[in-house]
Amino acid sequence: MKAYSVLAICLLVITTMMGCAPALVGGVLYYAEKKAHKPTSYVPLDKAGGYSETQLTEDRWRVNFHGNAHTPRERVWDFCMLRCAEVTRDAGYHYFLMTEIGADDSVASRTSTSSGYTQGRSTGSVNVYPTYQGGASGSYSGTYKGYTTPPVTTTSTHVSPGLWMIIKCLHEEPPTKDAYDAEIIAQSVRQKYADSR
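RE: above sequence
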């Protein structure tokens, strides 16, 4: 059972006992479920995802961004680019080149097994006959029809997308024009996610 489901049940019991309005409970449940399915924000890396970087040389960094299972790949790409732009500017450079790039997804599988059950129905009749000494004798006949459902095992897989880039930072734009302007990238990504970061 998901954490927010347990929380919801506890809140429902407590608020009912205290006589709180059902609307309050509904609002809390809505918030808990919405938060549980929210994509990763642009934050430093923690257990729910985020960005990190490692300086490799004076002008080279490895930059990572990891999302949760509800984070689209486009968002992971954009936030990794944003972090590259910020690392570039923080180090006193204006441009960066992507020299290497790779996926860094994590995959989690969960297996659950439902319990099997048997369901059926018995039908029959009982006949009772009196005897001469005041007792009784009788007979029973009947049938049983039923079926058994075996346990079912299901596996669900969740992919949390991740991306890493190795960048080389530059003070000036190279003649090949394949470098990214850190200021333009930062402004562009921030504007795109202004309401959801």
